[in-house]
Design the sequence.
C-alpha cells in the first residue's frame, strides 16, 4: 500500500531500530508517534517565537499568541463546537478531567448526590471523581460491563436517580477498544437531567468527533495520543456549564482584576487557563489534527481496516488466547487488542516481543478495576495506528506464536 | 566453600556462554521452571513486592549469622532471574550480603530487566535483600 509507506516517512521514529531490528511500534494507545509537521511547528515556536502569551505587545509574543489562538479556532472547527469559548487548553486529558471534577463538582454537587462512571475507565477517569465524592459526601456509582466488554446500558436507567449529576465514560475504552454508544448514553442521561462527559483520549484518534452530534456536555482528550506534542490537551465544555463553573487553578491570565478586597476572573476560555500555557506544544494540535484527517481520508484507513480484520481473526482463532473487548461486528472495535494467553504471563510475553523489536504494552493499563472485573493481574495490549502496516501485523502474530512456544516449551 | 565473589563469577561466566538473547531467555525460563517450589501459604502481602507488571514474593529466614532466601514470581523470566539471585545470596552471612555491591547483576547483562522503568518487582527485591542483610548485621 503506497499511501501507508508514504505516510510512514512523515514519522521519523518509525524508521528506528531496536536491538538491530526494525522497530514495530504497537503501543499507540499509550502515545502515538509524531509527524514531521508537528515536530517542525514545535521547533519553530521554540527557536523563533518563544514568548509568553497574551501579555506583551512585542513582535514574537504577538506571533506566539496568534498561533495559540488560531489553534483554538482550528480545534473548535475540528470538533464542531459551537464557539471558541468552549475550547479550553489543558496539559492533557487527565488535567481536563481533574478540572471538570473540581469545578463542576464545586458548582453542582451536594452531599447525597451521585456521579456515575463505567467499570472500564482509565484511572484518570475514576480517581478525580472519587476525590470529589469524598470531598462532597457524594457517592460514586459504577456502570458495569458484560463479559464481552460492552457497557450494561440496560442497567443505566436504574442507576440514574434525581441525585445523579454527571456520568463520565470513555468514548472508547483504552483496554477494550470498543466504541461506546455515546449518543444513546446522552439521550438516557439528559432525559434524567444528568450531564455527560466523554473521555476521548482514544476516541479522538479513531473517530471523527463532532461534539454537537454526540450531544455530550464535556469532551476531553490528550494531544500526545493523537500525534501532537506531549503536555497538550483539550477540554470541550458546553458554554452554559463552563460559565457557571468556578475556576480550577488560579493565577496568570485567568484573572480580571486583582484587589486585596477580592478578585474577578477573565471570561471564557481564559478563566480556565491559569499560569503560563504550553506555548510551543498547543499549536502542534493543529498540525496533528490535520494529519489525523489526512490519514482518515486516504486509502490508509482501508489498509488499517485490513490490519484490524487480520489481527482480530488471528487472535480469535487461537484457543490459547483470550481477547478482552469482543465486538459484535468489527466496526465497533478500533485496532486495539488487549488479551491474555493461557499459562503465559503478560510481562514475559512483552519482554520476549520487545527483543523481537515489537513494542507492546503489558500490565494493568491504568485500569485496575477492569483487571479485577476480568480476574487477571494484567494483559498484553497491541494498539495500531494508521501508519502500521499489514506486514507488521503479520510479524507481530508470528512473533507472538514464537513467544508462546518459548514460554510453554 | 567458595566466596560470594567466586559464586558470582561462576554464574556470570555460565550466563555469558549464551550470545543470543533468545538463548539467554530460554536459560532463564528453564531456571524459573526449576526453582524450588514456594509454598502458597507464604504468598502473603507482607512478603509481596508489588510492581505494575509481575509480582514477586520474598521469604527470609535467619539462622545464626546466615540468611536464607526463598522467592517466587508469577512471571517466568522474572522467576529465572530470582533463581539466580537466590542461588547467589541464600546461605551467605548477613555481613557478606550487606557488604556486596550487587554489581554482578549488571555483569549478567540483565540491566534492562532490572531497571525501575520495567516496573517489576526485581529491583525492589534486590533492595529488600540488601536492607534485610543490613538489619541482621
Sequence:
Amino acid at each position: 500500500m503506497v499511501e501507508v509507506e508514504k505516510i510512514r516517512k512523515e514519522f521519523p521514529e518509525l524508521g528506528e531500530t531496536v536491538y538491530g531490528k526494525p522497530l514495530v511500534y504497537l503501543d499507540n494507545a499509550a502515545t502515538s508517534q509524531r509527524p514531521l509537521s508537528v515536530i517542525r511547528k514545535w521547533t519553530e515556536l521554540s527557536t523563533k517565537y518563544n514568548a509568553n502569551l497574551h501579555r506583551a505587545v512585542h513582535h514574537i509574543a504577538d506571533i506566539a499568541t496568534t498561533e495559540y489562538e488560531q489553534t483554538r479556532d482550528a480545534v473548535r472547527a475540528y470538533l464542531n463546537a459551537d464557539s471558541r469559548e468552549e475550547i479550553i487548553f489543558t496539559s492533557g486529558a487527565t488535567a481536563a478531567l481533574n478540572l471538570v471534577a473540581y469545578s463542576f463538582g464545586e458548582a453542582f454537587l451536594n452531599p447525597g448526590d451521585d456521579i456515575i462512571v463505567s467499570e472500564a475507565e482509565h484511572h484518570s477517569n475514576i480517581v478525580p471523581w472519587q476525590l470529589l465524592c469524598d470531598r462532597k459526601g457524594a457517592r460514586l456509582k459504577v456502570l458495569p460491563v458484560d463479559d464481552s466488554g460492552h457497557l450494561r446500558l440496560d442497567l443505566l436507567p436504574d442507576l440514574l436517580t434525581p441525585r445523579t449529576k454527571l456520568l463520565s465514560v470513555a468514548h472508547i475504552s483504552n483496554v477494550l477498544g470498543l466504541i461506546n454508544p455515546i449518543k444513546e448514553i446522552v439521550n438516557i442521561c439528559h432525559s434524567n437531567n444528568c450531564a455527560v462527559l466523554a473521555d476521548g483520549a482514544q476516541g479522538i484518534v479513531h473517530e471523527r468527533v463532532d461534539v454537537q452530534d454526540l450531544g455530550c456536555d464535556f469532551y476531553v482528550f490528550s494531544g500526545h495520543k493523537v500525534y501532537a506534542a506531549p503536555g497538550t490537551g483539550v477540554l470541550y465544555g458546553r458554554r452554559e456549564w463552563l460559565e457557571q463553573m468556578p475556576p480550577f487553578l488560579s493565577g496568570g491570565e485567568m484573572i480580571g482584576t486583582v484587589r486585596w478586597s477580592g478578585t474577578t476572573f477573565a471570561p471564557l476560555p481564559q478563566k480556565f487557563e491559569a499560569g503560563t500555557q504550553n506555548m510551543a506544544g498547543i499549536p502542534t494540535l493543529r498540525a496533528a489534527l490535520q494529519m489525523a484527517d489526512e490519514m482518515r481520508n486516504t486509502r490508509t484507513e482501508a489498509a488499517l481496516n485490513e490490519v484490524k480484520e487480520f489481527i482480530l481473526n488471528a487472535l480469535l482463532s487461537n484457543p490459547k488466547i483470550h481477547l478482552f473487548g469482543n465486538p459484535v461486528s468489527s466496526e465497533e472495535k478500533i485496532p486495539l487488542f488487549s488479551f491474555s494467553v493461557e499459562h503465559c504471563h503478560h510481562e514475559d510475553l512483552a519482554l520476549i516481543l520487545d527483543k523481537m523489536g515489537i513494542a507492546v504494552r503489558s500490565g494493568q493499563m491504568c485500569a485496575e478495576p477492569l483487571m479485577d472485573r476480568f480476574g487477571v493481574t494484567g494483559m498484553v495490549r497491541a494498539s495500531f495506528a494508521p501508519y502500521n502496516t499489514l506486514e507488521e501485523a503479520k510479524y507481530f502474530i508470528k512473533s507472538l506464536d514464537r513467544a508462546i512456544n518459548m514460554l510453554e516449551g | 566453600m567458595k566466596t560470594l565473589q567466586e559464586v558470582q563469577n561462576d554464574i556470570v561466566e555460565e550466563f555469558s556462554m549464551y550470545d543470543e538473547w533468545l538463548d539467554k531467555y530460554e536459560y532463564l525460563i528453564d531456571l524459573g521452571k526449576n526453582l524450588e517450589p514456594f509454598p502458597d501459604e507464604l504468598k502473603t502481602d507482607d512478603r509481596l513486592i508489588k510492581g505494575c507488571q509481575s509480582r514477586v514474593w520474598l521469604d527470609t529466614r535467619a539462622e545464626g549469622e546466615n540468611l536464607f532466601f526463598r522467592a517466587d514470581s508469577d512471571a517466568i523470566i522474572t522467576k529465572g532471574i530470582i533463581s539466580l539471585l537466590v542461588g547467589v545470596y541464600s546461605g551467605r552471612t548477613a555481613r557478606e550480603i550487606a557488604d556486596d555491591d550487587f554489581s554482578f547483576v549488571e555483569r549478567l547483562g540483565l540491566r534492562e530487566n532490572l531497571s525501575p522503568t520495567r516496573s517489576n518487582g526485581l529491583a525492589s527485591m534486590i533492595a529488600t535483600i540488601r536492607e534485610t542483610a543490613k538489619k541482621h548485621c
About this structure: Chain B touches chain A through 17 residues (CB under 8 Å).
